[in-house]
Amino acid sequence: xxxxxxxxxxxxxxxxxxxxxxxAILGTFSLVPQPQVIKTFKSKSVRxxxxxxLIVAADSILWLSYGVxxxxxxxxxxxxxxxxxxxxxITLKLSYGKGRxxx
Length: 103
Description:
By secondary structure, the chain is an all-alpha fold. The protein has a single domain (7-96), classed as Monooxygenase. Helix content is 78%, strand content 0%. It is built from four helices and no strands. It has helices at residues 7-31, 34-43, 50-70, 73-96. Helix 1 (7-31) runs parallel beside helix 4 (73-96). It is elongated.
């Protein structure tokens, strides 16, 4: 027993956390258009609205805050990755998207 917690509880928590990380990884790659970021780098042309990027960034910050408050590592990791991708998309939109696609 470790400080009043049985090995069974620790194992169960590990499985739950692993499940959370798997969900975070799959959720991040399904929500953040990674291929769009790569395509934008290559073509120097932006075809996504800035408003979408700002909404994704705001959503990520809110989920990150929630994850930090509740100490949920999978949610924190997912939110940081999603926010990073949104930040890159915003940067690309502001760099390459001027005058091409208006929101």
